[in-house]
């Protein structure tokens, strides 16, 4: 049995960063990771020709300073997201070109509706104290309201409603009826507001690390070396007066402290002994993951660029609701990323692989022309099926959860400390939030030694 100062459960960005900071502070650490790889909800996969795709988290924004600090520390540069030309929005089967975050040329009624709803969302986000959203003005009212109810009461034009629903509910990879308005406001506020969340330039899709997210997590894993134990799903954590015993598939670790950095949606798969306090245990039952499929359609060239298009497009309700240019820094090959979320993702997941591919490529061809129907390569990643993610992109709070159980998100339970992007008051749901949570949990443990 390994005997260390701290056992970290999960080697996504939260767990890796926690372990990194602890080792740098001179602590002995063991990291137990369920999968046969590190990275968790990020996964940079080689295409075998020097190119790669990011199957999970990919983009970074300029205000995400903790992931940028980590990139600087490991010498990973970034490159700007391609954003020259027009975006496309498809309504009633007709593509419209637009620039910026919100399409503003869809007729005065649609435009006014979109604009006012967006401003209202921004105003509400500004009222949220991100460290304690459960104490926001009108927190109880917002937490008793679903995003669907809010959209219905605030957006009267159908195209505006459908677009906002695709954009906003899409962030939670769920139907708008599944998510609490308070959680939406908190999560958007944690990123600086809806313009950041939905934006490309200066927004959350501003840039990408050269080499993908793997260019960051691989050197951290190399630094941690044999401290990381792969293929070790943790089954139980037992606390006693002197320490904690963490039992995984074929490894047992004894530690003074444990940092649990798994998605909250699947934290209850671990048996905690003694049982966790009620608020924390209930939180584990009440924050489900969403559904998201990321598809990479690969072409010899990014042909949409020559057609004056950014590659960013939205077409609510289709098999390809959102697309974005996902080329590497070299711009070749052309990689068009399709993002399918929530009920749409589950619907596609029930189709056969060939029917799904056909449906997605047909929709791309309607939007980008016949070239889009014939990619040279094609990859799908359905995070709904990932046992050790419990869905993606993030675990969300349905109604009533944040106000009742929110304070348990970060509160340590005896020797157990909590990390993971869902526990971060800043950039909750992003890789940057994961990094922040890992650093916060590591500091909790380090500070204890001097308390
Ligand atoms: C399709 C998709 C697109 C996204 N796009 C972006 C983006 O562009 N930019 C961005 O910033 N964010 C994005 N995100 C979100 C981002 O990827 C996550 O916020 C971040 O990776 C979460 O990191 P984490 O360490 O908190 O959790 P995870 O990455 O989920 O790490 C948890 C780790 O715990 C392991 N684990 C689970 N259970 C156990 C167990 N019982 N025992 C041991 N180990 C266990 C898992 O295998 C995993 O490695 C996206 C996510 C998805 C899925």
Notes on the protein architecture:
With 451 residues, this protein is α/β, with parallel strands linked by helices. The protein has three domains: 171 residues, FAD/NAD(P)-binding domain; 129 residues, Polyamine Oxidase, Chain A, domain 2; 94 residues, Guanine Nucleotide Dissociation Inhibitor, domain 1 (Orthogonal Bundle), CATH 1.10.405. It contains 15 helices and 19 strands. The strands form four sheets. Strands 1, 2, 9, 10, 11, 12, 13 and 19 form an eight-stranded mixed sheet that branches. The chain has a seven-stranded mixed sheet with strand order 7-6-15-16-17-14-18. A two-stranded antiparallel ribbon has the order 3-4. Strand 16 and strand 17 form a beta hairpin. Helix 1 runs parallel beside helix 15, helix 2 crosses helix 15 and helix 5 runs antiparallel to helix 6. It is globular and about 65 Å long. The site of flavin-adenine dinucleotide (FAD) has 41 residues, from helix 1, strand 14 and helix 15.
Give the helices and strands, then pairings.
Blueprint: E1 2-9, H1 13-24, E2 29-32, E3 44-46, E4 52-54, H2 65-73, E5 78-80, E6 86-91, E7 94-98, H3 108-126, H4 139-143, H5 147-154, H6 158-171, H7 181-190, H8 194-198, E8 207-209, H9 214-224, E9 228-229, E10 234-239, E11 244-248, E12 252-260, E13 271-273, H10 278-286, E14 292-299, H11 303-306, E15 309-314, E16 322-325, E17 334-341, H12 342-349, H13 353-368, E18 377-382, H14 401-405, E19 416-418, H15 431-450
Helix pairs in contact: 1-9, 1-15, 2-15, 3-6, 3-7, 5-6
This protein binds flavin-adenine dinucleotide (FAD).
Flavin-adenine dinucleotide is lined by residues 9-15, 32-35, 40-42, 56-59, 233-234, 261-263, 266, 269-270, 292, 294, 383, 388-389, 392-394, 420-421, 429-432, 434.
């Amino acid at each position: 049995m390994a005997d260390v100062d701290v056992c970290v459960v999960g080697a996504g960005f939260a767990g890796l960063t926690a372990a990194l900071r602890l080792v740098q502070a001179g602590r002995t650490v063991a990291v137990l990771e369920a999968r046969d790889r590190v990275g968790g909800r990020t996964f940079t996969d080689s295409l075998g020709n020097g190119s790669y795709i990011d199957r999970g988290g990919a983009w970074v924004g300029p205000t995400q300073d903790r992931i940028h600090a980590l990139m600087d520390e490991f010498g990973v540069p970034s490159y700007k997201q391609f954003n020259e030309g027009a975006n496309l929005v498809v309504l009633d089967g007709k593509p419209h070109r637009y620039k910026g975050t919100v399409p503003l040329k869809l007729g005065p009624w649609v435009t006014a509706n979109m604009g006012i709803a967006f401003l209202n969302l921004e105003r509400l986000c500004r009222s949220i104290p991100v460290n304690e959203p459960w104490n926001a003005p009108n927190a109880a009212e917002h937490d008793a309201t679903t995003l669907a109810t809010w959209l219905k009461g605030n957006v009267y034009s159908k195209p505006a409603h459908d677009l906002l629903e695709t954009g906003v509910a899409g962030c939670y990879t769920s139907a708008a009826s599944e998510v609490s308005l308070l959680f939406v406001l908190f999560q958007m506020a944690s990123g600086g507001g809806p313009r950041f969340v939905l934006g490309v330039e200066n927004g959350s899709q501003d840039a990408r690390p050269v080499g993908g997210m793997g260019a960051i997590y691989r050197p951290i894993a190399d630094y941690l070396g044999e401290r990381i134990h792969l293929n070790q799903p943790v089954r139980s954590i037992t606390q006693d007066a002197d320490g904690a015993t963490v039992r995984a598939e074929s490894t047992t670790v004894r530690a003074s402290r444990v940092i649990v950095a798994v998605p909250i949606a699947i934290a209850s798969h671990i048996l905690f002994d003694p049982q966790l306090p009620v608020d924390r245990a209930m939180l584990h039952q009440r924050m489900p993951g969403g559904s998201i499929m990321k598809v990479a359609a690969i072409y010899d060239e990014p042909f949409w660029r020559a057609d004056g298009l950014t590659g960013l497009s939205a077409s609510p309700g289709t098999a390809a609701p959102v697309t974005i240019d996902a080329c590497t820094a070299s711009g070749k090959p052309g990689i068009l990323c399709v993002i399918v979320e929530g009920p749409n993702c589950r619907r596609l997941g029930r189709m056969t692989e060939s029917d799904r591919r056909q449906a997605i490529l047909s929709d791309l061809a309607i939007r980008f022309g016949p070239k889009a129907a014939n990619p040279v390569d094609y990859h799908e990643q359905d995070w709904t099926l990932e046992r050790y993610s419990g869905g993606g992109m993030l675990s969300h709070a349905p109604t009533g959860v944040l106000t009742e159980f929110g304070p348990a998100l970060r509160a340590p339970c005896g020797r157990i400390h909590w990390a993971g992007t869902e526990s971060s008051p800043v950039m909750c749901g992003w890789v940057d939030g994961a990094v922040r949570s890992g650093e916060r949990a590591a500091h909790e443990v380090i500070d204890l030694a001097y308390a």
